[in-house]
Amino acid sequence: MEMLKTDVVVVGAGTAGLSAYRAAKAAGASALLVEGAAYGTTCARVGCMPSKLLIAAARAAHAARESARFGVRIDGSVLIDGREVMARVRGERDRFVDLVVESTERIISDDRLLGHARFVDDNLLEVGGKRVHARSVVIATGSAPKMPTLYRALGDRAIINDDVFAWTDLPRKVAVVGAGVIGLELSQALAWLGVDVTLLGARDRVGPLTDRTVRRYAQWVFSASLRFDPNAEVGAVTREGDTVHMRYRSSAGELVDDTFDYVLVTAGRTPNVDGLAIGNTTMEVDERGLPLFDPETLQARNRPVFIAGDANGVLPLLHEAADEGRTAGINAARFPITERLVSRAPMSVVFTEPGIAMVGARYVDLADSRFVTGKASRGPRAQSYYASKHWPHARLR
Q1: How far is it, in rounded angstroms, from Cα 119 to Cα 132?
Q2: Which long-range contacts (CB under 8 A, 24 or more apart) does 383-392 make?
Q3: How far apart are the C-alpha atoms of 206 and 202, rounded to whole Å?
Q4: Do 308 and 327 meet the contact criterion of CB atoms below 8 Å apart?
Q5: Quick one: how far is CA 333 from the chain centroid?
Q6: Which residues pair with 263 in a beta bridge?
Q7: 143, 160 Cβ separation under 8 angstroms
Q8: How many structural domains comprise the chain?
């Protein structure tokens, strides 16, 4: 078996992996970038880029419907051609992916290796019939959407957000399970594009919001364009031909039976570490099978392994992946000398209308602090909500 040697091997050529590879090279180390699938990054292929294309189409449709409020009248109804919408989304997405692939392929061929990586020991990996010995390793394998067992029997009628961007036309009716960031964005976009959408959340979750008052307002706003039950309990789902029959209990305790073309499951993501054979290493793992690591240096305890991006299960955000990749790459190159990750201020943005933006600590993390909350109202919907006495006065804690 052919043996390759390098200072740093980076497993995964996504946002974190590319950042780690470039940082290791800039630090003067030799580095090998390993990818088990196709180049292109999650963001470009099935994440932030294609989702924003769909959202842009939805906002255009919504603006056309609302234009009369501004004295701009459109004769007749707004017609949405689902095939044209999805053709543009896929076409522009493919252009973005091509740009990322071209950038990755400009990395010299001797530094790139295609194949699935498996640990043999802490410093040795097997990749497609070759062995790679490295002084240190960066795990940047990303994450994958979860598909709970309840929905697996539905076959291609149960989809994840990746599958939405393979549609050639818009469906008639969709149930979205999970009211996190992805669920909110796609639910509102599809609803504005004329799809009949039911969004089923759990534990009153609305995106990243943790302030109960703001969550209630957000639920009220999003319910204007789709059926939104923030605390539903799905009891059974069955496939009936090309449709899905779903039975769930609503927040009000009512038993609801409905039929959908698809169930879009947005129930979070799982780090891609199962295929790495981590059991062959001396790394300690948690109950999820993820290596225990120092969040400041990204090092797997005192091992020559660093974990960056979605693979570490902390913050699945593009800018966080890039920052972590850079730190992991530098630390892998300089190992055993390490530096602390310099984090940006925590930030979260949800591309809905109205948008949700959070900077700094979450409300739930301020529970033991003294702080002031306040409100500012804009637009008739906000005024209507406040007038209905859902929103409390500013308070000191």
Answers
A1: 10
A2: 385/217, 385/220, 385/221, 390/213, 390/216, 390/217, 390/220, 391/213, 391/217, 392/213
A3: 9
A4: yes
A5: 29
A6: 158, 175
A7: no
A8: 1
Task: Give the CATH number for residue 24.
Answer: 3.50.50.60
Total residue length of the chain: 397
Task: Write the pLDDT tens digit of every residue in 16-55.
Answer: 999 999 999 999 999 999 999 889 898 889 898 999 999 9
Residue type at 59 in one-letter notation? R
**Token pair of 38, please?**
């196709």
- Structure token pair of residue 263: 């169930």
In a domain, 199, yes or no: no
Local structure of 384: helix, strand or coil = helix
Cα–Cα distance measured from residue 111 to residue 20, given in angstroms and rounded to the nearest whole number: 13
Q: Kindly give, in sequence order, each residue whose CB lies less than 8 Å from that of residue 222, ignoring residues fewer than 6 positions away.
A: 184, 187, 188, 199, 206, 228, 352
Note the pLDDT tens digit of each residue in 124-154: 999 989 999 999 999 999 999 999 999 999 9
Q: What pLDDT, on a 0 to 100 scale, did the predictor assign at position 314? A: 84
| Residue 152 resides in a domain | no
Instruction: Report the percentage of the chain scoring pLDDT > 70.
Output: 95
Encoded tokens for 338: 């390490």
Q: In 3-state terms, what secondary structure has residue 301? A: coil
The answer to whether residue 48 sits within a structural domain is yes
Res. 365 pLDDT band, cuts 50 70 90: confident
Q: State the Cα–Cα distance between residues 298 and 119, nearest whole angstrom.
A: 18
Which of the two residues, 100 and 380, has the higher pLDDT score? 100
DSSP class of residue 346 equals P
Question: What's the rounded Cα separation, in Å, for the pair 171 and 104?
Answer: 35
**Has residue 386 got a pLDDT over 60?**
no
- pTM listed for this prediction: 0.90
For residue 63, with 0-12 CB atoms within 10 Å meaning exposed, 13-18 middle and 19 or more buried, which class applies? middle
Pick from 172, 238, 192, 133: which is nearest to 353 by CA?
192
d(CA 84, CA 49): 18
Average predicted confidence (pLDDT) for the chain: 91
301 inside domain: yes
Distance, in Å, from the CA atom of 135 to the CA atom of 25, rounded to the nearest integer, reads 14
Task: Quote the domain boundaries for residue 300.
Answer: 2-145+270-334
pLDDT for position 369: 77
Please tell me the predicted confidence (pLDDT) of residue 379. 63
pLDDT at 391: 47
Mean pLDDT along residues 166-193: 97
